[in-house]
Write a structure and sequence with these properties.
The protein contains ten helices and five strands; from the N terminus they run αααβαααβββααβαα. By secondary structure, it is mainly alpha-helical. The chain has one domain.
Length: about 290
């Protein structure tokens, strides 16, 4: 009777596959004296279920995490392309160009918000990844993930909410106007960028005007002299993120391929997901490409 109930519970759990607790329960069962009640064939079946579940779960988690990182990288690239277009096409421009400029700035604002959302999502997803795939051999990697650029990352997470309330920048905030006269004495207003890196530089006082910052993030902002250059910040964040996930994927595959050699084949597929190849194909952006 006890044997029948154990078997029914195991099968019911295995067919649902709804929680990571299943595998932990099976492991405990395998270690407990209760499993001695089962016949050898049944023990082998349980062990096979455990192995299959662990392998499939690990594979799914790795692929899912790589897709989340791929979304971050793709959003970063689209944002970088838009910023490059801004500096390339609007180094100096005339009054009639302003509608085009405003449209591009709105697009940069949208892309930057997308980027911040993917920073937030990847951070949360990675924490869930470590929780589900708990393994003592990954403890050091998790500590490294939590501590690397900790203040930068928390600032970027909260900046998303700030932008929703305040916006990213004022279209004319970093420009000088001058009037150029032709031979007939007719003047045309021309606008010049004050400084190349001013597009995504947020003034410290402007940032501190919001009361929604966490105390730690507020101190982080106060540590800057005048402004925070978001271009520099996200470039540094991208570089360190790549390094930490390079280590993570390598370590996880190294650990689990000892038990499941076929997992080594995941490497190329994960790399494609990391660079966004398995996301929706990028469409041409008419605003960035200048086809508005």
């Amino acid at each position: 009777m006890v044997k029948d109930n154990i078997e029914k519970n195991i099968i019911a759990s295995l067919t649902s596959f709804e929680t990571e607790l299943i595998i932990e329960a099976l492991r405990e069962l395998r270690k407990s004296s209760l499993i001695s009640i089962l016949e050898k064939a049944e023990k082998d079946k349980i062990i096979q279920y455990i192995s299959k579940f662990e392998r499939e779960r690990t594979t799914k988690l790795l692929k899912s995490l790589a897709i989340m990182e791929g979304a971050l990288n793709k959003n970063y690239q689209e944002l970088s392309d838009a910023i490059e277009s801004y500096y390339r096409d609007f180094k100096d421009f005339e009054r009639e160009d302003l509608p085009q400029l405003y449209q591009l700035l709105d697009e940069i604002n949208r892309l930057f918000h997308n980027y911040l959302a993917s920073v937030y999502s990847l951070d949360n997803h990675t924490r869930i990844f470590y929780r589900i795939l708990f393994n003592e051999q990954l403890n050091e990697e998790f500590k490294r993930f939590k501590n690397l650029n900790k203040e930068h990352k928390q600032f970027l997470r909260e900046l998303r909410a700030f932008i929703q309330h305040y916006g990213l920048f004022s279209p004319i905030a970093w420009m000088n106007r001058r009037t150029i006269y032709d031979e007939r004495g007719e003047g045309v207003d021309q606008y010049l960028l004050l400084e190349k890196r001013k597009l995504l530089a947020l003034d410290k006082k402007f940032l501190l005007g919001w009361r929604g910052w966490d105390n730690g993030v507020k101190k982080y902002i106060e540590g800057y002299e005048e402004s925070i250059d978001l271009e520099v910040l996200i470039n540094e964040y991208q570089k360190s993120t790549k390094e930490i996930y390079d280590r993570l994927y390598k370590k996880v595959i190294e650990i689990y391929s000892k038990k499941y050699p076929e997992m080594k084949k995941l490497i190329s597929e994960i790399e494609k997901r990391r660079i966004g190849e398995i996301l929706i194909e990028k469409k041409k952006n008419p605003i960035i490409e200048g086809e508005w």
